[in-house]
């Protein structure tokens, strides 16, 4: 089943959902890669410099992993296509207008926005404005 590509439909139909918990971005050393099944990260990305994981703040603290910021995750609950054009830009622009940084991860079914924990409610309100205003960016 492929997702929606029409930006207007995506923005009008998305329901931003604040996930439970606090998340952090951290990295693993090469010799720790075998720990991934045990850690069960929310997301993984292999960069040239190392592997980035998105995990719960609680787990990072238990394992002594370094992180610099604490985030909340907002899932855009509309089935967006990976071929859709403009969703990331619209969401990032909306949040930037409220002085909120957006760390976006696109997955198969949904886009996920990580915002600083202190800004989570403001970010959620800002994203809900799309529904109130139609698709105006």
UniProtKB/TrEMBL annotation:
Gene3D superfamilies found in the cross-reference section: VC0802-like (3.30.2130.10)
Which InterPro entries would you find in this protein's record? Answer: ACT-like_dom_sf, CASTOR_ACT_dom, DUF2241
Protein name in UniProt = Transporter
Which species is this record about? Photobacterium lipolyticum
User: Taxonomic classification, please?
Assistant: Bacteria, Pseudomonadati, Pseudomonadota, Gammaproteobacteria, Vibrionales
Q: Which Pfam families match?
A: ACT_3, ACT_7
Tell me the ranges covered by the CASTOR ACT domain, including all copies: 74-129
Residue stretches making up the DUF2241 domain: 2-72
């Amino acid at each position: 089943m492929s997702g929606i590509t029409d930006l207007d439909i995506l923005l009008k139909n998305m329901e931003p959902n604040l996930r439970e918990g606090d998340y952090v971005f951290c990295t693993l050393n090469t010799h720790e890669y075998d720990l991934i099944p045990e850690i069960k990260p929310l997301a993984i990305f292999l960069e040239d410099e190392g592997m980035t994981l998105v995990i719960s703040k609680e787990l990072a603290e238990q394992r002594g992993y370094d992180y610099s910021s604490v985030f909340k995750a907002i899932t855009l609950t509309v089935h967006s296509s990976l071929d859709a054009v403009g969703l990331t830009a619209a969401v990032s622009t909306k949040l930037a207008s409220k002085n909120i940084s957006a760390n976006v991860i696109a997955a198969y079914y949904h886009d996920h926005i990580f915002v600083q924990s202190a800004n989570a409610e403001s970010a959620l309100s800002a994203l809900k404005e799309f529904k109130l205003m139609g698709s105006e960016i």
